[in-house]
Amino acid sequence: MVVADLFSLAQKVALVTGANSGIGKSIAQAYAAAGACVVLVARRAAELEQARTEIEDAGGRAAALPCDLAERDALFAGAARAPEFFGTPDVVVNAAGVNIRRPMLEITETDWDATMRVNLDAPFFLPQRLAPGSFPTPLTALVMNDPVRWKQMAERTLIGRNGRLEELAGAAICLASRASDFVMGQTVFVDGGMSAAG
Ligand SMILES: NC(=O)c1ccc[n+]([C@@H]2O[C@H](COP(=O)([O-])OP(=O)(O)OC[C@H]3O[C@@H](n4cnc5c(N)ncnc54)[C@H](OP(=O)(O)O)[C@@H]3O)[C@@H](O)[C@H]2O)c1
Prior knowledge:
Layout: H1 3-6, E1 13-17, H2 22-33, E2 37-42, H3 45-57, E3 61-66, H4 72-81, H5 83-86, E4 91-94, H6 109-124, E5 130-132, H7 141-144, H8 147-155, H9 169-176, E6 188-190, H10 194-197
Helix pairs in contact: 2-9
The structure holds NADP nicotinamide-adenine-dinucleotide phosphate.
Residues 17-18, 20-24, 42-44, 47, 67-70, 95-99, 118-119, 132, 134-135, 137-140 line the site of NADP nicotinamide-adenine-dinucleotide phosphate.
């Protein structure tokens, strides 16, 4: 057995939502580097195209599929189009997410509906198995730019610091590869021990 082959994603097709930013972009890059063909999903087409170009410039294969996952029709249309690029996806990563950081009383019904659709409805149709801790992305910028709050987040981990995006790659590749073929229905916490610390 060649151990490296266990973790190869050659011949695999991965669909990654939220692939033009933060965690999704980082995982999409890691999957492409491991040999997968990656279908990149998010709304902002220019950023999606940039992510696709970066992967191809690095020698990988990727396609951009702009889609608003908060719109049910668009979600189903996107899912139907996904196999057109490299065939039916073997792996789906639900990294698209909304986290509106406003006081509860300022959250509108529209905000709530969009959040539920992206964070709950879209992953409902697809499996989700990776649970990240705190990583620096546009979504966490408000907390990250506040040194006190960012330090407080770090202190909740066992490792004593927040994550680096590249630290998601190992677990994400393992879950998508042959190495974890018999691992089903698990949640892998990549959080520096935050969940274990309670
Ligand atoms: N960063 C962390 O420390 C951390 C920790 C735990 C969990 N998470 C979760 O991980 C997920 C990704 O977070 P992140 O930090 O990577 O945030 P991010 O950099 O802001 O990325 C969010 C992604 O979601 C996409 N998206 C948002 N609304 C969408 C919609 N309606 N349709 C399609 N795509 C949509 C965005 O692209 P468009 O705007 O172009 O659509 C973007 O690619 C979120 O669910 C977040 O709660 C993050």
